[in-house]
Amino acid sequence: MSVSTEFSMAVLTRPQGRNADLGGALLQRGWQVTECPALEIQPVILHDVQSLATPDSYDLVIFVSVPAVQAYHQHLSQMHPKYVWPKDTHIGCVGQASGQAIREAFGQDLSLFQPDKSADQDSESLWNKLIAHIDSIRRVLIVRGQDGRDWLASRLTEKGVKVDFYVAYCRNPATWSPKNIDMFKTWAQSAKYPVWLLTSAHAIKSSLAQFREHDLVQWAKKCCFILTHPRQETVLIQGLNKLTTCSRTEKSLSMPKILISRPLQEEILSNFEHFRDNHRID
């Protein structure tokens, strides 16, 4: 395989442990892969059974992410080691990875609402699945970090559904390692611009803070970014604009190149290859 030396650096920012499969696939395609988690994910410490919301109290439990599934499963196993998911409690999620994690944690024979693989992996697509069954859903538990899925909660509430939130994990900004900081500064000095994968608004904001702290904002504006939802583009562009001191004309000339990808590995890989094969930094 012929490999471009100008565009063969990938920076993966998913939390620790979530980059291995994609990183391996990129390495096979000749990419230099740097793992640089933007967020640190830690399950909430559960102290007593009274603080655990169990599925049997709800018609539907919605998991916002893979960490939500993993942390909630850990809590259930901690307080109820032999717990079996009740057959009358449905499960919802917005992504294919979350759906796989749900089945691995709670079993294959579950009633699972999730967007089709070909659809956007977001709250709107999940809502389109739920709306046909809304008359049978009276109580919903949304398992999440400190925040998230407020739009979906509002739609459910408008239909008369009682919505509770369960904070299963903490999501905190990560700090770049000294090794990665040195590497990014070397790339900046050498006018080398990697392709970044950012998969949430929280990850974008954390990365922006690191760009600012290490005086890498202007460099970042010449990098390329793969994002996993159209709304993330606004977060990234507005964040970079707030951090820069250049003129309006210079801002418009130096905005990063961005591709929007569904969070499916084959699609993300295709977008990495698109950047390498079709784009060059001026």
UniProtKB/TrEMBL annotation:
Keywords: Lyase, Porphyrin biosynthesis. It catalyses: hydroxymethylbilane = uroporphyrinogen III + H2O. It is an enzyme of class 4 (lyase). Pfam families: HEM4. Pathway: Porphyrin-containing compound metabolism; protoporphyrin-IX biosynthesis; coproporphyrinogen-III from 5-aminolevulinate: step 3/4. Its EC number is 4.2.1.75. Transmembrane segments: none annotated. InterPro entries: 4pyrrol_syn_uPrphyn_synt_sf, 4pyrrol_synth_uPrphyn_synth, UROS/Hem4. Belongs to the uroporphyrinogen-III synthase family. Catalyzes cyclization of the linear tetrapyrrole, hydroxymethylbilane, to the macrocyclic uroporphyrinogen III. This is Uroporphyrinogen-III synthase. It comes from Sheuella amnicola.
